[in-house]
Design goal:
Function: Catalyzes the reversible hydration of carbon dioxide to form bicarbonate.
Pfam families: Pro_CA
Bound molecules: zinc ion
Number of domains: 1
CATH architecture: 3-Layer(aba) Sandwich
Catalytic activity: hydrogencarbonate + H(+) = CO2 + H2O
Largest sheet: 5 strands, mixed
Cofactor: Zn(2+)
Number of strands: 5
Distance between the termini: 42 Å
Shape: globular
Enzyme class: lyase
């Protein structure tokens, strides 16, 4: 974002930024694009909640096509109030009924603690309203996320909720059994 009042001509960048690259790619995409003629309701009636990790290509990894699903992503793929907000709209307004939760190996949240929040407060003088949602045991975090979806009073459909860990080195999903107890050796 520029803060200057310079005329637009002076603001033209000399070197292309990453965003310029994306905009150029979009022009190529749009030149081959044809209107799929869909409405906003996902064809497969599924919402996928996943980590924002750059190594997880949800559409490729799950064989999804344009229009198939809702994708809701954040750091960790954790079920926050805002994810519940999106799922509620997804189910009540746009008719999805299955929920798939995907965490992954090597998640950045495994190296953080709630101390991150404290350090942030010390640095900027304000405590964030949100939890970091850091975790040590990815399987247990998937179970907790499944539980948060299943117990939400706002959702219409909580019978088809499944959770997985995506292995970023093999590309494979491993399903998490919601009834398994947390492993005894977890930190
Ligand atoms: Zn992650």
């Amino acid at each position: 974002m520029t803060t200057s009042a310079h005329p637009a001509a002076e603001a033209v960048p000399t070197a292309s930024t990453v965003t310029d690259r994306l905009v150029e790619a979009n022009e190529r995409y749009a030149s081959d694009f044809t209107d799929p003629g869909m409405d906003a309701r996902p064809v497969l009636r599924v919402a996928v909640v996943a980590c924002m990790d750059a190594r997880l290509d949800l559409h490729a990894a799950l064989g999804l096509e344009l229009g198939d699903c809702h994708t809701i992503r954040n750091a960790g793929g954790v079920v926050t109030d805002d994810v519940i907000r999106s799922l509620t709209i997804s189910q009540r307004a746009l008719k999805t009924r299955s929920v798939v939760l995907i965490h992954h190996t090597g998640c950045g949240l495994e190296s953080l603690t709630e101390e991150f929040r404290h350090e942030l407060e010390m640095e900027v003088g304000q405590r964030p309203a949100w939890a970091v949602e850091a975790f040590r045991d990815v399987d247990q975090d998937v179970r907790q996320s499944m539980q948060r979806v299943r117990t939400s009073p706002f959702l219409l459909h909580t019978d088809d909720v499944r959770g997985f860990v995506f292995d970023v080195t093999t590309g494979l999903l491993r399903e998490i059994d919601p009834s398994d107890a947390p492993s005894a050796d977890q930190a």
